[in-house]
Amino acid sequence: MMPASDTLDRLLSATAFAEAGEFVTARTLARGMREILLVLQAGEPQPEVLVTTRSMMERLDAGVEILLAGPETEQNPTLTRFLEEVNRQGRTARLIHRPGIPWKTVLAYAGGISGIVCILVESLEKWGLQSHPERRRPPPWSQRLPCPLVVASPIEKATI
């Protein structure tokens, strides 16, 4: 929890920005930073993932932090356009490269940032994670999550 003096400083700063007509900045300061942690493997993200991210950002009034498991030299034009679009909308967006990150590192990273409202992944399979066999209870590994986990890929329909 944030100390009262930090909260007061944040609210006074928000008031100053609101008086100057910077309402987006004022609202961000007043609420505190809220971000979605989008975790992607190297390569082009599926379009559904970016659509889901955009939709969640609007619903949650949040920015996005993209944790990309790949080398920093790898250029990704789709993500570059996505980040530019998010910034034009006045939302925060940041891309962080981490080569070969394991799932435990993702959990530690998300747990260390107070403003993360959820972790969004493309699919569980890409991370070597399994859902509960009966699909009635959350899997054991999900008990250590610091926030909700959202899977953006559509669930395949079972064949009978």
Q: Overview of this structure, please?
A:
By secondary structure, the chain is an alpha/beta fold. The chain folds into two domains: 1-31; 33-151, Rossmann fold (3-Layer(aba) Sandwich). The protein is built from five helices and five strands, in the order ααβαβαβαββ. Helix 4 links the parallel strand 2 and strand 3 (93-97). It is globular, with a radius of gyration of 18 Å. It starts with a helix and ends in a 9-residue tail after the last strand. The model has no long low-confidence stretch (mean pLDDT 77).
Précis, in short:
38% of the residues lie in helices and 18% in strands. It has 160 residues and is an alpha/beta fold. α1 packs antiparallel against α2.
Gross geometry = globular
In the residues, how many domains can be counted? 2
End-to-end distance: 50 Å
Overall mean pLDDT: 77
CATH architectural group of the largest domain: 3-Layer(aba) Sandwich
Q: Oligomerization state of this entry? A: single chain
User: In terms of per-residue confidence, which ranges show pLDDT below 50 for 5 or more consecutive residues?
Assistant: none
- CATH superfamily of the largest domain, by name, is HUPs
Say how many strands there are.
Answer: 5
Query: What is the N-to-C order of secondary-structure elements (H for helix, E for strand)?
Result: HHEHEHEHEE
Helix and strand topology:
Elements: H1 4-19, H2 23-31, E1 35-41, H3 47-60, E2 63-69, H4 77-88, E3 93-97, H5 103-111, E4 116-121, E5 149-151
Parallel strand pairs: 1-2, 1-4, 2-3, 4-5
Characteristic terms for this protein:
5 helices, 160 residues, globular, 2 domains, single chain, five-stranded parallel β-sheet
